[in-house]
Amino acid sequence: MHLIDYVILSVYLIGMVLIGLLMQRKASSGIDSYFLGNRKLPWWVLGASGMASNLDVSGTMINTAWIFTLGAIGIFVEIRGGVTLIMAFLMIFMGKWNRRAEVMTMAEWMKFRFGTDKEGHVARLISAISILIVTIAMITYFAVGSGKFIAEFLGIPSFWGLSSEFWASTIMIVLAMTYTVASGLYGVVWTDVFQSVLIFGMIIYISVIAFTKFPLPDVFSISVPLKDGGYQVIEGITRQQWTNILPPWKLNFSADSAYSIYNLFGIAIIFYLLKTVIEGAGGTSGYMIQRFFASRSDRESGLLSLFWTFLLAFRWPFVAAIAIMGISYGATHGTIQDPERVIPIVINQMVPMGLKGLLIAGLMAAAMSTFDSTVNAGASYWVKDIYQAYLNPHASNKQLMRHSRWASIIIVLFGLFFSIFIKNINEIWGWITMSIGAGMIIPTLARWYWWRLNGYGFAIGTLGGMLAAIIQRLAFPNVPEYVAFSFASGISLISMIIGTYLTRPTDRNVLYDFYKRTRPFGMWKPVITKLPANTKNMINKENRRDIIATCFAVPWQLTLFITFMMIIMKRWDALAYLIILLVFLSVGLYFTWYRHLSTEVKVDN
């Protein structure tokens, strides 16, 4: 980088820290302010913050790697992570269901669902611990990705036996932690809004120059990573083949390729879709659900989701543009070997000074916005669900704020420590989404739809699934993703059913209070007998409408993302069909969901 690039980067970083510190006073009034912004944040701020938090450097680097290697069909691999499609479920019904509980964390939600006796406490504690483990894993994932990115530019040497990537990620994380620890959710969302502007400027710039200056060659080469750490160049890839959006049933990677797990591509996509539907219908946790806990109404939870999803769609033209520029660079300088380094190589070699600093700042903004949201949400589980709930119920505001900040710091230190042992972004992301996440997915789903599930069943199912994920990682780490997912989720399902039926059901009064406030669909017949017939009919009508709307929302979101990507790839034939499909799905969404946003069923006591 040149001096001007460093100046731009320095101004951005100082600005982020100052914005966060200015929000410190607002965040310090209590943990409701620190973690939820007192539920007074506008929906568009929460939506923009959510988009910035989803557009992380690690995820963008790995998505670029998939598009660079697989072409347009690489977008289907992202389905495994959930973000591509889970927003559709949050937008239609899962966001408002969570908001209605009026809690701070998903773990605190457990006392709302299972009561305040022993089973509720067990479910809450296991939920808090499991989410803290996932949070630390996510910090590890962010550290590995951001380290790979930043080390490419700052020229940080390796020392004390630790890599330059580790020290690069440490620098970024310390800067982000400064305002995150100081200002809580206020600092997170307002810095995210500022960073969203920077991110959009970056996306527009890269998309325009890729579209106008770097035509995709008719024939070119790509590279794939090997299991032993090396790379294999694959020649003879055609433009038509690479931009084709219709996924094939099979791919032909060699057995020693790290991407050979995608050879049964059709089965993988079906499996990812099934997994994401289960995950979306069960809800999420961490910083994503925190935005809905902080929203002001059912209507605003829907609007923030819509805005969030629309903004997130712009990630894909950026990813496609970087991949095209990477292929163009490889045509004259030799194929880029590591697909996960396409972004830093393209920026380093193909972007002029000044704009390079702005682009790096934009990608650092993406990294920091994801990191700060994850840390802030994760710390709330320690403070609210462990420290205040069990260790010090009478803690003063000062003590709670102190633990909020120290929890943030300790979570980050654990994440950085584990990043030392992980070298591949895809490796850690695959384990988070398809193994450890699978250990939580079944109890997380059943809690909404099955009245008989009690707190013990939830806790035992979650604990069994997460232990299975850890055993899988230690005993057979190289199995296909569908095997890892099936093993962890299968153990979780069996454990949940055994734990549920060996213990008594949750108190009917607790279940009734949960149902009348949340109003989910599913197996609730024994619980809703006290509801008046007209109220039940209104709830059933709302639920039927939400189910139909979800059938529009899921393909609408995926079509929106692919449509934006096809513009950059100049596939006008596919674009025409996608626009027709997008209009049809948008009209369906309007009539089944959007025009009913202000309608809410009221259930009297």
Task: Give a quick precis of the structure.
The mean pLDDT is 84. This protein has helices at residues 3-22, 24-27, 31-36, 43-54, 57-70, 83-99, 106-114, 118-154, 164-213, 239-243, 265-282, 286-293, 298-312, 315-333, 342-350, 355-391, 397-419, 425-436, 438-449, 455-475, 481-501, 508-518, 533-569, 572-592, and strands spanning 219-225, 231-238.
What does this structure look like?
The chain has 605 residues and is mainly alpha-helical. It has one domain: Sodium/glucose cotransporter, CATH 1.20.1730. It contains 24 helices and two strands. It has a two-stranded antiparallel sheet. 55% of the residues are buried. The model has no long low-confidence stretch (mean pLDDT 84).
Structure characteristics:
single chain, 605 residues, mainly alpha, Sodium/glucose cotransporter, 24 helices
Topology:
Blueprint: H1 3-22, H2 24-27, H3 31-36, H4 43-54, H5 57-70, H6 83-99, H7 106-114, H8 118-154, H9 164-213, E1 219-225, E2 231-238, H10 239-243, H11 265-282, H12 286-293, H13 298-312, H14 315-333, H15 342-350, H16 355-391, H17 397-419, H18 425-436, H19 438-449, H20 455-475, H21 481-501, H22 508-518, H23 533-569, H24 572-592
Antiparallel strand pairs: 1-2
Helix pairs in contact: 1-9, 1-16, 4-9, 4-12, 4-13, 4-16, 5-8, 5-14, 6-11, 6-13, 6-23, 7-8, 8-9, 8-15, 8-16, 8-17, 8-18, 8-20, 9-14, 9-16, 9-17, 11-19, 12-16, 14-15, 14-23, 16-17, 18-21, 19-20, 19-21, 20-21, 23-24
